[in-house]
Automatic annotation (TrEMBL):
<dbReference type="InterPro" id="IPR046336">
    <property type="entry name" value="Lon_prtase_N_sf"/>
</dbReference>
<dbReference type="InterPro" id="IPR003111">
    <property type="entry name" value="Lon_prtase_N"/>
</dbReference>
<protein>
    <submittedName>
        <fullName>Peptidase S16</fullName>
    </submittedName>
</protein>
<dbReference type="Pfam" id="PF02190">
    <property type="entry name" value="LON_substr_bdg"/>
</dbReference>
<dbReference type="InterPro" id="IPR015947">
    <property type="entry name" value="PUA-like_sf"/>
</dbReference>
<feature type="domain" description="Lon N-terminal">
    <location>
        <begin position="17"/>
        <end position="211"/>
    </location>
</feature>
Amino acid sequence: MGMNAVYRGPEDCPSVIPVFPLPGALLLPRGQMPLNIFEPRYLAMVDEVLKTNRIIGMVQPDADNDPLANVPKLYRVGCAGRITQLAETGDGRYLITLIGIARFRIEEELPPVNLFRQCRVRFEPFANDFTARFGENDVDRAGVVKALRDFVNAVHVKVDWRGIEEAPNEALVNALCMMSPFGVREKQALLEAPNLKSRAEVLIALTEIELARGGAGSDSTLQ
């Protein structure tokens, strides 16, 4: 598809995409993720996708990896994003912004032909991701906001409450998940939640667990 492509369903998406393994990086449909690209293999990846569809698959390395492994195993579920902004720095880096399109399931990793990793993926298991605000009426918004208030009070961070009040449920839940200070396993659980309602429930549960442990530290920011 071309530079101004619109991805309305799985059939619009490529079956092979480059993947960017990044622990703790959670991209969700229609979410925005800024990235600072400086490693040669990922600079090459960006150069390559700029020639075609601008799509990159964000995926976390499996938390149970052997720390000495040269090529870490990947979780099977990630989220594809499209580069919507790009700036070059004077020292050879790219500053890019990805907008989440939809989640995918990795079918197989392809033999390396470039500096970066590529996978054959399927978007069909997550077809509802392509519909903006799908299922958001089922979200326990009051529960999400209460969990956020409790968390904010515990770690003493500033939050744009007006923005919170005005945000639709999908944007609210996904933005809070993406900004949350949780670990790799927890972020993967948020990513793999079947729908927005269950993602909100996982977010609430994880927040309650974190608060019971004494909070996530005062360096957290949820702005």
